[in-house]
Amino acid sequence: MSGVRVLVGTRKGAFILTSDGRRRNWDVSAPQFGGWQFYHLKGSPVDPNRIYASQSSDWFGQTLQRSSDGGKSWETVGNKLLYDGVPGMHQWYDGTAHPWEFKRVWHLEPSLTDPDTVYAGVEDAALFKSSDGGATWTELSGLRGHSTSAQWGPGAGGMCLHTILIDPSNHDRLYVAISAAGAFRSDDGGATWKPITKGLHSKHLPVPDAEIGHCVHRIAMHRSRPQTLFMQKHWDVMRTDDGGESWQKISGNLPTDFGFVIDVHAHQPETIFVVPIKSDSEHYPLDGRLQVFRSRTGGTEWEPLTKGLPQDDCYVNVLREAMAVDALDACGIYFGTTGGQVYASTDEGNSWNAIVRDLPPVLSVEVQTI
Amino acid sequence: MVRVELPYHLRQLAGVNGEVSLEVPGVVTIAAVIDALEARFPMLQGTIRDHATGERRRLLRFFACEDDLSFSPPDAPLPDAVARGGEPFIILGAIAGG
Fold first, then answer.
1. Cis omega (within 30 of 0) for bond into A191
2. Domains of chain A
3. Could you tell me which CATH class the domain B2-93 is placed in?
4. Which residue of A63, A81, A102 is in closest CB contact with B13?
């Protein structure tokens, strides 16, 4: 492991930030496809030079890019993500039935074993899979065909499937999260799915403990403990230790437990990070102070991490795809803001520096340790 | 040859500068021109017409010979001046958004 590559998706292009293993000096690429939205970029864990990127535009729709040289060059791959069969209806904001309409790809999750296999989570919520490097796509329609799908509804950001997790010990076990339908698990490679929401409580729902309707913002997993998942819900930080069969609240002493991102330390599966946001009505940090909170106990007991982060007049947001960790020792943590800053910590969160300060609003951050 | 003007972002995606010249077989219609464009530049598939519906994307418009052809039937013949290459077929992005 000699360096780090940070893949940053923004409202106006993608950027690649690179450094050696010391992570002190950073090279910031020119904008890749400037002017296009990049909701997500992610590299293959088995071939780090293979990177998939979701490129979209209100004018030109969804396109997908693939790099085979670590982001030096790109090839446009297939963008025909068509729902399987008649798309059907889901619930709209006002409770009426609304047809499923493809809008964009929110998340790309490369296979853990094959660089040509990649999953795509899309809005309106569905899961697609490509086994030919993104050339063609097939919907894993058992998810959207779940008996509850007519009850699924959009969150403020749209009805997006944003989290895709592959169990490293059992590749047939997949987890997805949809805002605002909830979380689902498949144990057969994506053919069939079950809601995994027992223990979630959302007071804005008519039935707060309902199986469907929870606005899950992000789920994170440490690869050494795939039964344990950490969730940042709309409000509430949660964990499960049984693959989602039951969830427990671990918000503990957080000053606010609304937020979007959550991630796990690369080497300590009980060390987790969140960025509390004031509220769902005010998408910025509490008191104008940007704080990461770390728990070394798997939740409940949290400590603020502020060194190097703005502690006055800071009103940015940190969106759900915009935090990631590297695998170096000590673990690096990275997050991007809607103000265009990408912050990095090379000491497990104790102190922070801005790698770059003035990018367009950051939508996603992924890190490759190379 | 039919001349096609693309908006900036589609020129970038296709890797071209300026106008594109296309051989369009048969009757020169909007659909035939876009079919030929997508055949030559597969990376543009789905960016002008929605994959699912085949409809023109709502923030794009089609112009030729100073006429707005955005709502013309896709199979209606384009003006002779476009078919002969005297005038370009213009695909224009709406001047909107941030």
1. no
2. 32-316+326-331+342-353 (2.130.10.10)
3. alpha beta
4. A63
